[in-house]
Amino acid sequence: MDDLSERLFAHFVGGRWRVPFGTGHIAVARADGTRAGSVVLAEARDFARARALLRGADAAARDRLALRLEPYGMAEAISGAAQAAAPVMLCRGADDRDALGAALGAGLGHGLIWCPPPDAALNATDIAMQLQEADLPPGCFALLHAFTPQTAPLIRATGLAQAGSDQRYIRAPKTFCTTSARVMPISARSSSESEL
User: Fold this and answer.
1) Is the model's pTM score more than 0.85?
2) Is the torsion defined by CA of 174, 177, 183, 188 positive or negative?
3) Which of 66, 78, 115, 188 has its CB 3.0 to 4.6 Å from that of 105, i.e. a possible disulfide?
């Protein structure tokens, strides 16, 4: 798949781009507002597949990832991250490269699933393409689209720990998910925060 719009339409799971099980679509726009394509919302089978294929990576893989993402300004955060104690779910965008790099570095040891909001789909897909080129073990990273009110219950149901946006902590599973620079209980979101 050479075309970005085709990659947007897929999920990256188990080291390769896969056709999603979900059928719901959300349009994705570029920074100038022009349509870039659509992402397919992950459904329960997508999350189950990604969870089942999660595998950890060693320090050498993390070093390769840091080198590959150095042009993105994430190398130091990846290398300096403390390894998470269990697989991690990340539900945030790519706007804070240090936080994203720290989450990637922390999550690789046991596996990380990234489910970014729709407005981060282009950047997330680009970064997933870079991870694919970094020769990481299949399954240490997955990209599922997208963190929305529809997918939030499915994310909680994975039972994975949620990566906090500043990466100084990992929250207990099923309780928290982040959409911005703070971590909050999903049930405490206002209706305006629920609409992406």
Assistant:
1) no
2) negative
3) 78
Domains along the sequence of the chain with CATH: 4-194 (3.40.605.10)
DSSP class of 104? H
Radius of gyration of the chain (CA): 15
Distances (CA, A) of 105 to 21, 65, 97, 192: 28, 8, 12, 32
What is the Cα–Cα distance from 85 to 68, expressed in whole angstroms? 24
In order of 13, 38, 131, the CA distances from 164 in angstroms are 22, 27, 21
Nearest CA to 163 out of 92, 93, 98, 109 is that of 92
- Residues 75-133 have pLDDT tens digits of 999 999 998 889 999 988 888 899 899 999 999 999 999 999 998 999 999 999 999 99
Find out whether 65 and 131 touch, Cβ atoms under 8 Å: yes
Q: Which of 30, 48, 35, 50 is nearest to 141 (CA)?
A: 50
Query: How far apart, in whole angstroms, are the C-alpha atoms of residue 138 and residue 15?
Result: 4
Which CA distances in Å does 148 have to 10, 25, 54, 66, 177? 17, 11, 22, 29, 11
